[in-house]
Amino acid sequence: MYRIGAEEIEELKKVIEAGDLFKINGGLQESGKVEQKLKDTFACRHSIFMTSGHAALVSALIAMGIGPGDEVIVPAYTYISTAMAVVAAGAMPVIAEVDDTLTISPEDIKTKITKNTKAIMPVHIQGFPCNMDAIMEIAKTHNLFVLEDACQADGGSFKGKRLGTIGDAGTLSFNFFKIISSGEGGALLTDNRQIFERALIYQDSSAVAFFGNQLEGFTEEGFCGNEYRSNELCAAVMNVQLDRLDGILADLRKNKKYLMDALADVAEFIPSNDILGDCGTTLAIRFESEEKARAFATAEGVRGILPIDTGKHIYKHWTPIMEKRGAFHPLMDPFKMEANKDIVPDYRADMCPATLERLAKVVYISVSPNVSKEKWDQRIEAIKKALATI
After folding, report:
1. How many CA atoms lie within 13 Å of 19's alpha carbon, on the beta-carbon side?
2. Cα(120)–Cα(123) distance, rounded to whole angstroms?
3. Is residue 152 a contact partner of residue 128, using CB atoms and an 8 Å limit?
4. 356 phi and psi, to 5 degrees?
5. What pLDDT, on a 0 to 100 scale, did the predictor assign at position 190?
6. So which residues are the catalytic ones?
7. What is the pLDDT of residue 95?
8. Which residues have a Cβ under 8 Å from the Cβ of 309 and sit 6 or more positions away?
9. Which of 228, 173, 170 is nearest to 203 (CA)?
10. How far apart are CA 360 and CA 217, in angstroms?
11. Rg of the chain over CA atoms, in angstroms?
12. pLDDT tier for residue 212 given thresholds of 50, 70 and 90
């Protein structure tokens, strides 16, 4: 979380004083306001505010009709939650390499498609936009769903269109570590009415028919699902955070550009599919070797991190996935289901060597929207000094 203050406190105060903390109410209706604000901000027809980005991913996959017997292609570099969402739907995650942009490789996607493939899940990791033109073309050719995981890219864009609104559906995350936050939270975005109706039923199956008019005009029949419903306290915070979003992004992008301009002659940056749409949270500098990357990252004043060291963001550290433990009860485990017996992947630690090599030769510098020019100048000098000595 980058910015929070008196405005959020005031909105929370209003909700507490009104006493209506449940999502559906006759009072302030903060949750409804969030969903309308999401539609306005992201220029999409439907939105659902819920408990997490993971909840949104699972709800979207279920709404797409994805389940046992299906494969979903995910990148080798993303938080484990992406792959776990596929398993939660009963399907098999198929892991693809990332390219030099550190986002999923369209070329490797093509090699992973089989007759069982039903969807591609591009992940806009670190706010880096994926090559959505290429991905959408592949999906169109093979009649596949595209579910964008924009959980690390709230508000980013690709060629002027917000991330999460290009595919059939997209997801956002609002946990504490994201661009905007309500502590925990997430959202599903889509223009597809069928996906919206099914996802709404699934994410609130225990209450959707009993409170308000949430099912008005629905043509999809109810079915058993989960309870990922959020509440008015989180919604109150998110309403203010959404108002802050574009200002935060503008300052992130301004500061990242300042760094890139100052370092352009001495550093090699990873390529971008759309630098203008990049969220600006992370400056990624590429090196010839892991040894040089580590020497730079640990140099005085640099404060860098190698993405290869980010644990559960690297496929080989997705322990439950790699060890094929998809559920506690064996009969509920997709890796043991009869429908999946012929498509369970052969996961190996070395299965995506290009991804591992790329991630080991890059250093991330975190960008903040709240740092002064003087502080950035000090950081730039430290980075230049480090680059000159390795």
Report:
1. 0
2. 10
3. no
4. -60, -40
5. 99
6. 178
7. 98
8. none
9. 228
10. 51
11. 21
12. confident
Cα–Cα distance measured from residue 125 to residue 133, given in angstroms and rounded to the nearest whole number:
17
CA 355 to chain centre: 18
Contact (CB, 8 A) for 287 and 361: yes
> Is the pLDDT assigned to residue 206 strictly greater than 90?
no
How many whole angstroms separate alpha carbon 171 and alpha carbon 153? 10
**What is the 3-state secondary structure of 265-309?**
CCCEECCCCCCCCCCCCEEEEECCCHHHHHHHHCCCCCCCECHHH
Mean pLDDT across 197-214: 90
Q: Residue 349 is which amino acid? A: A
Longest dimension (CA), the chain: 66
- Predicted TM-score (pTM) of the model is 0.97
CA distances, 72 to each of 104, 186, 298 (Å) = 13, 21, 38
Tokens of 333: 């485990």
The answer to whether the beta carbons of residues 119 and 61 sit under 8 Å apart is yes
| Domains with residue ranges and CATH for the chain | 6-242 (3.40.640.10)
- Nearest partner of 78 among 123, 136, 45, judged by Cα: 123
H-type alpha helices, the chain: 6-18, 30-42, 53-63, 80-88, 106-112, 132-142, 193-203, 232-263, 290-297, 319-322, 353-360, 373-389
Residue 350 identity: D
Please name the residues in contact with 210: beta carbons below 8 A apart, sequence gap of 6 or more: none
Per residue in 105-150, pLDDT tens? 999 999 999 999 999 999 999 999 999 999 999 999 999 999 999 9
Predicted local distance difference test score (pLDDT) of residue 302: 97
- Per-residue pLDDT of 59-76, as tens digits, reads 999 999 999 999 999 999
Residue 207 has pLDDT above 90, yes or no: no
d(CA 205, CA 228): 9
CB 128 within 8 A of CB 101: yes
Is it the case that residue 246 has pLDDT exceeding 80?
Answer: yes
Question: Bridge partners of 365?
Answer: 283
68 vs 88: CA distance, rounded Å:
10
Report the alpha-carbon distance of residue 105 to residue 13 in Å, rounded.
47
Where helices occur in 298-340 by DSSP H, the ranges are: 319-322
